[in-house]
Amino acid sequence: MVSMAESLERLSALAASPVVSTVSRAFAAAGFELALVGGPVRDAMLGREVTDLDFTTNASPDQILAVVKPVSDAQWDIGREFGTIGARVTAGGLTETVEITTYRADAYDGVTRKPVVAFGDNLEDDLRRRDFTVNAMALRVPDITLVDPYGGVEDLLSRTIRTPSTPQVSFGDDPLRMLRAARFTSQLGFVTDAATAEAMTDMADSIRIVSAERVQVELSKLLLTDAPRAGIELLVESGLASIVIPEIPALRLEIDEHHHHKDVYQHSLTVLEQAIDYEKTRDFNGAPDLTLRLAAILHDIGKPATRRLEPGGAVSFYHHDMVGSKLAKKRLTALRYDNDTVKDVARLIELHLRFFGYTEGAWTDSAVRRYVRDAGHLLERLHILTRADVTTRNRRKADRLGFAYDDLEARIAELREQEEMEAVRPDLDGNAIQRVLGIPPGREVGEAYKWLLELRLDEGPLGSDEAERRLLAWWTERNSPA
């Protein structure tokens, strides 16, 4: 529970911080109002790290620029149309980026999510247009006065997501706020109040007017939170997920009374949670990994299309890895994810079942090399995804799979040390192939290179002399009369 006394103490410390103090004194000296608003106020009160310094003021963009120039070493006005000026300020040995926006009193046309930009003349009206009450609080500086006209403090104390106006008006103005509600549910660990959740369900279809790019940004922010499960469940329960990423709610397969299988939807959420745990315990990248998390939540989306009810009560999902890879590529492309992310997520989904063949019989060194080769730069992500995919409650089975993967990783490490597996290449490059065979650049060089690569994967490093001998023998046999 948030203590109000502690929260006010944190706000005072924020207002007294070198950069905030420098900026606020400059605006006060120029005769303008200034207030920290939204995220930094909320996060300071919660004791979270404040990563963005967002201010609002009654000064116009031109006036903002005039005030910040003397106290900053860089400024930019790319957001001038929306009243926002950015600046880099150094004070007390700290350098931070700040954004300062003129009070807004926007209106929305009800057709798109783009506002008709209008500047306002008071802080309270500016706060009214914000998404949620916990983001509609401001801290006037330098005099340190908390402005909270819509009950943000009470909602902060009760850990509730609620809109300043009615949710129908708020979501009608900007349907993207429904996705933001889900994101804040996970990011802050709050609960969306009943009226807000009901409006999300009733108005879910209006999300269609929001661009795919904006939807993608919110989905990504949700997945990158420490605990995205609650937000995803809210999207599914409200019907929003059925519109923006329908492959996830489709995982809630109907359970036939005669055919039993685990709940694929709940399994996928658990895989996501376990992947996040592995991110931390394996010190992976040092930051949340979007590619891994997308692959975790989407890894089984091929199951609904491949589900077969077998005799005796069994359920099969043959080739759901390949089908799921294609479905993920299609959905992520539609959501305007970049090409590398789309390709990498699809590849992880395609490969996520490969390991389970390892438990059926020991792999040869050649098979281990191919596993590493096929994963490429995704190998560590594949390690995590494969381990996270084990959600069985059968401790004996879970231990068996865990020990098997420990063994596979140990073998990979041993071969890597022996053979520099990160860069598995033939013992001869294209130039050497041309020299040995006496042929010019062309298709045949590529075929020879591919043959040598397969040989390398099967037998490990051969050395250039042995590789030349084997290549010549292959070439002679290949070109001999039938």
SSE map:
Layout: H1 4-16, H2 18-29, E1 34-37, H3 39-46, E2 53-57, H4 61-68, E3 74-76, E4 84-91, E5 94-102, E6 107-108, E7 115-116, H5 123-128, E8 138-140, E9 145-147, H6 152-158, E10 160-161, H7 167-173, H8 176-188, E11 191-192, H9 194-202, H10 212-223, H11 229-238, H12 241-244, H13 264-281, H14 290-298, H15 303-306, E12 308-309, E13 315-316, H16 320-334, H17 339-351, H18 365-375, H19 379-388, H20 395-419, H21 430-437, H22 443-459, H23 464-479
Parallel strand pairs: 2-5, 10-11
Antiparallel strand pairs: 1-2, 1-8, 3-4, 4-5, 6-7, 8-9, 12-13
Outline the structure in words.
53% of the residues lie in helices and 10% in strands. The protein is elongated. Helix 8 (176-188) runs parallel beside helix 10, helix 16 runs antiparallel to helix 17 (339-351) and helix 18 packs across helix 20 (395-419). The chain folds into four domains: 1-152, 2-Layer Sandwich (Beta Polymerase, domain 2), CATH 3.30.460; 159-244, Hydrophobic Seed Protein; 254-423, Hypothetical protein af1432; 430-479, no CATH class. The protein has helices at residues 4-16, 18-29, 39-46, 61-68, 123-128, 152-158, 167-173, 176-188, 194-202, 212-223, 229-238, 241-244, 264-281, 290-298, 303-306, 320-334, 339-351, 365-375, 379-388, 395-419, 430-437, 443-459, 464-479; strands at residues 34-37, 53-57, 74-76, 84-91, 94-102, 107-108, 115-116, 138-140, 145-147, 160-161, 191-192, 308-309, 315-316. The relative contact order is 0.05. A hairpin with a 2-residue loop joins strand 4 (84-91) and strand 5 (94-102). The strands form four sheets. A seven-stranded mixed β-sheet has the order 3-4-5-2-1-8-9. Strands 6-7 form a two-stranded antiparallel ribbon. Strands 10-11 form a two-stranded parallel sheet. The mean pLDDT is 90. It is an alpha+beta fold.
